[in-house]
Design a protein that fits this description.
This protein is α/β, with parallel strands linked by helices. Helices cover about 50% and strands about 15% of the residues. The chain is built from 11 helices and 10 strands. The strands form 2 sheets. It has a 6-stranded mixed beta sheet, sandwiched between helices. The protein starts with a strand and ends in a 10-residue tail after the last helix. The chain binds octanoyl-coenzyme A (CO8). Octanoyl-coenzyme A binds next to helix 2, helix 3 and strand 6. Octanoyl-coenzyme A (CO8) binds next to helix 2, helix 3 and strand 6.
Amino acid sequence: MNNLRLDVENEIAVLTISRPGALNALNSETLNELNVVLSEIEARDDVKVVILTGGPDKKDNPYKSFVAGADIAEMVNFTAAEARAFGMRAAEPFFKLMNMRQVTIAAVNGFALGGGCEIAMACDIRIAAENATFAQPETGLGIIPGFGGTQRLARLVGMGRAKELIFTCDNIDANEAYRIGLVNKVVAKEELMNTAKSMAAKIISKGSYAVSIAKAAINNGYDMDIKNAVEMEANLFGITCSTHDKTEGMSAFLERRAANLTDF
Ligand code: CO8
């Protein structure tokens, strides 16, 4: 991989987007690499949580940029057909981040602009360093968010705030992103990876199969009517009741001992 680094330790995969000369902007090569590596990770039983972050800039500043957007130099001469293909090239790995059985956490270590904010929104959870900056600056470039931003931002922060951010291109800081529900947590930048890893460890300590089924229930039910969504949840609940972890988890509680949850 040219633009991604994968480090796996303690069942946590840290996936670092690394294009130091372009503030980690997403070009086609990076999106293709992301698509391949996420499929590989999903097949691994030794990874339970994926943390997505940005690498240092060319001056080696680790807190400059998460992802400064889609690669403007690549997009500048796009035809309509090429632009559509580029959008769909991103859609595939972004849906993997959203739907893969592992939990995905964006550790936002600086600029999360345009496609950078969009890839963070495709993750299950977002943790921001206090210096992080979020924006959807596309309309200022004469385009619209094309990696799911018009859809995911409205779902996360509500339609009114999404419209304001997309129409004004305003930058917001990490605390404002927290206030409007765009990020789950804001921490000192030096604490970002430790915070993401300790949240990952806490998630890993639960039943990993149950967590993945809960993720599917939340995702699948989100756009359904409540009656069908609750029925879908009941069906998935039934599936979790057929597992080793359910027997072990409930027996351990009744026997007042720690549970040994192993399903994934
Ligand atoms: N694309 C390509 N190169 C970039 C990008 C980018 N998005 N962002 C930064 N770079 C490059 C710069 O060109 C520069 O390269 P060089 O050193 O060769 O000149 C290098 O990174 C460093 O950047 P700066 O010198 O500009 O650094 P500053 O600290 O002065 O500024 C900023 C940092 C404020 C982040 C500034 O770089 C900036 O405004 N970048 C662009 C941000 C932006 O507009 N992002 C949105 C892009 S559009 C988008 O994401 C659409 C997504 C959906 C596409 C769907 C298609 C279908």
